[in-house]
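pipeline stage [seq->struct] | target=Maltose/maltodextrin transport system permease protein | organism=Natronobacillus azotifigens | residues=414
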Amino acid sequence: MALSILFAGLGQIYNRRYFKGILFALFEIAFIITFGEFIGLGLWGIFTLGEIPGVDHSIFLLVYGLLSIILIVFAAVFYIYNVRDAKKQAQAILDGWIPPTFKESLKAGYDKTFPYLLTTPGLLLLIFAVVFPLMFAISLAFTNYNLYNSPPRHLVEWVGFSNFTNLFTNNLWRNTFVSVFSWTIVWTVVATTFQITLGLFLAVLVNDVRVKFKKLIRTILILPWAVPGFVTILIFAAMFNDEFGAINRDIMMPLFGLEVPWLTDPTFTRMVLIFIQTWLGYPFVFALFSGVLQSISNDWYEAADIDGASRWQKFRFITLPHVLFATAPLLIIQYTTNFNNFNIIYLFNEGGPAVQGQNAGGTDILISWVYKLTFDTNNYNMAAAISLIIGLMVSIFAIFQFRRTAAFKEEGKL
């Protein structure tokens, strides 16, 4: 073990596992030659983010540093495995174990490493497509990277928790954050609850034995799901246009003599957005609940009829528990999805209308606000800070709710 700590593979060679020892040693030598200089530059860059404006590019140095950290983690995992392997083999030799031949070693190594060989490409893709971008976004949340402080002309600096402090101390950022966050919560809860309630109501209604032509009705009710969401949103945006939209021109004016400011008043815009999301979201919930309802045995309802149960009691104690038991995790996903539902907010009115004293629109939710901060005003640091807050909130909510649904694994605990 001591030899393997000194240099990878020496312990295996001492244990007469020559092929494995040479392979480990070559791997360490190749790693040092290939990545040694890069890791040195990366570690220097991530700590300093550059020293000479116009020459050092802080963002590139940050990227090099994050990649260096990932490479160091890979090397540490390999080195720990190398040391533990040497110690395990030495202990086995003391217990009388005889090292296998080269051919036997190859066969045993292939059998043991085959699952890892299959999963390694997926692991690497996950690290560089998910973990690395996440690390980069988190890092930006602790810098002053914005439009007026962009490399290579300027150097980016580490500012600690200043961005998060500004969200709650600076009047502009605080007012905007409180307003956007409040609307995001209202939007998530109300819009999702409406689509779930409507989907459940229609599923129970269509599933009633007295309803005829069930297949036709189900097909009609699922049709909104068949139309691409962005097409539906753009059509509704045109229909609710204040000046030439069909709602004002053909309905509100002829019948009530009113021109409702659907796109210029935040309250009316929010009402329309909730209506559109209910229209877009209920077909999936309806299809989901319809399948669950058909799996409930009629014997339960017949027994309830014999006991004199009312329709409400049968729904409350038979239908609803079964539906929630089967669909609770998917319903939670509906809430977390709408929390970050960027498409409908941006496509309908780009988060508008504008609100005085804020740098976000009247219907912007957190994710659409982050988009504007990133691509419209280039406030990368604040966008990253808000994104980190969004990620924490969604993760905590999802983990909490999924842990709660663990109680539904046994139907008797409903």
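stage status: PASS
auto-comment: The chain has two domains: 2-160, 166-413. The chain has a mean pLDDT of 88.
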